[in-house]
Fold this sequence. Notes:
Largest sheet: 11 strands, mixed
Bound molecules: glutamine
Helix content: 25-40%
Structural class: alpha/beta
Number of strands: 11
Order of helices and strands: HHEHEHEHEHEEHHEHEHHHHEHHEEH
Strand content: 5-15%
Amino acid sequence: MSLLSEYDSIHALQTALASKKLSATELAQEQLKQAQSAHALNAFTQLDSAYTLAQAKAADVLLAQPNAPVLAGIPIAHKDVFVTQQWRTTAGSKMLRNYVSPFDATVVERLAQVGTVSLGKLNCDEFAMGSDNQSSAFGPVHNPWHADYSPGGSSGGSAAAVAAGLVMAATASDTGGSIRQPAALCGISGIKPTYGTVSRYGMIAYGSSLDQAGPMARSARDLVELLSAMSGFDERDPTSLVQCAGQPNNGERIRQSFTHWHEQFQHNTSQPLAGVRIGVPQEFFANELESNVGAAVEQALQQLEKLGAQRVSVSLPLTRAAVAAYYVISPAEASSNLSRFDGVRFGHRAAEYSNLEEMISRSRAEAFGDEVIRRILVGTYVLSEGYYDAYYVQAQRVRRKIVEDFQQAFSQCDVLVGPVAPTLARPLNTPQADPTSDWQADIYTVGASLAGLPAMSVPCGFSSGTATLPIGLQLIGNYFNEGQLLALAERYQLHTDWHQRRPESK
Ligand code: GLN
């Protein structure tokens, strides 16, 4: 039984820490023990007890002061795409197996400043490319609900560690669904904010126009704490949203907006969501949607209606085309971002070569896995002369139209609600029939990524059958509406208990 299972929220844990019922050091020691004994999950790429305990000691000092930050002493861990000075940063790749960054990512720095205690680095698909964590050079992560199943990806280690009670929250990144999909498949909550809200500085790039960091935790309420601490303008990230003069920074904006909506929803006790229009995209309920996922999502929609929300049917006509556009744009950007791994400055270098060109090509061929190589090939092809207009430019046109379609939908509703993934977690070690068919499973998540919209996942049920596996509900908001999304999700979680379910003995 995890010590964390005694506390159902960050606030409850914070109360125990602040009242000295528990010290950050005791908690960190216990969680390190848990994380070590859960090695079969393969959620962590690295633990470093000495550093974790030093952070815990500093958190205890912070906790001894009045008004300690709410995250002081809270055990977390970072997806292994955020660079850290203390731990190696592998991005799940052989290429960076021994890489130690000379600086910390902004997200790592910000969460350390508010006293969180990091247990280490979390396994993920190689360079965050994948949907089931099987492309990691360090082996697949197992789903805490059933060890024979994948936790989803690419942030599978983050989702598994939270679901298994090893940490209270984790950082993750989402380029086309990598926060939402593993959160859904592991029965936890996760949010990808509006593009530009959280700094990408020190987050290893996959598709730079899509990459966005965000937190995973047990509940929407906990996500508010994490996201507001992680967010904010950062001059070291050129895509970071600038704070307008006289306006609160992004972290404060999210907190204020959440509080506003939280109070709004509290007014009418029997119908807290009265006046909220939830748009249900009809294209999210097509043939590929597994029946038990569809049934759980339908039940969640009914629950939201019971709380007073009004259901509106909307259309996102380019849902299917979004997958194609995403798998042109993201590999194109990846092929460019990954060109820096040439064995010259850092990363793996082949032992034998006879000239510079051979050194580069051998280093890359030896250190990149199949999925990453596939993306580099696709990306290079769609950017090459003669194909650029037909693929890359065309995909950008589709992207523009997707942005417009979302705005059309938001003229009819406040929030979009639907499934996160069409299927449940997949069994591990099933041979991959056709790699591109796996890409189709990103159908409901890539649209919000291409449009840069905030989107989140909350648990909404379980499958029935041989394995009990979690199902997630996706909520997509308009730009900067994280506060409303989180308050809506919180309201849903106050009336349901899916987010409180834990895998056995966790
Ligand atoms: N599954 C998607 C991909 O492989 C999304 C990954 C992500 O969001 N990092 O590109």
